[in-house]
Amino acid sequence: MPKKSTAPFVVRWRNDVLNDPRVTKNGALSAMALTIYARVLDGKDCHPSAAQCAKKLRVGESTIERGWRELKELGWLEIRQTPESVRGAEGAVKVFRWPEKLASQAATPVAKATPEAEAKAKAEGWASLADYHAYCRKAGIDPEF
Which range marks the domain in which residue 129 is found? Predict the structure, then answer.
């Protein structure tokens, strides 16, 4: 049985993206840029703009934007738009994903959800409680609710 990785969440995500043979140079660069801005332990609070990422990696904004599109299409990234009045100069929230999790999520049995837990998941920005629990399993962390 393979040993479970003890690397932080963002490091595991970055490594898995870079090991995906479908990811091009633009996708890899864009993923690397995102890992600079996300909280390393859980991948949250990641909302840099394309301009910020491009400046940090010394590439054009269009390179970052193409990479984000690619990562979204491959299932590695979700981009949640937020109103400009809320985010100010920051970009939309970037949520790290694993493609196989997205495909298997519907078939994964989840404990019966309480209305309180569902509400907490929605308040935290998750599409559903099942989405949050699948994220926790993949990240190797215990769910808080």
Answer: 98-145
Give the 3-state secondary structure of residue 118.
Answer: helix
**How is 45-74 classified by DSSP, letter by letter?**
S----HHHHHHHHTS-HHHHHHHHHHHHHH
Q: Measure the CA dihedral 140/37/34/53, to 10°.
A: 180
In a domain, 2, yes or no: no
Q: What pTM does this model have?
A: 0.63
Closest residue by Cα to residue 68 from 101, 38, 24 = 24
pLDDT tens digits along 90-118:
678 888 888 875 444 433 344 456 788 77
Question: Which domain CATH number covers 59?
Answer: 1.10.10.10
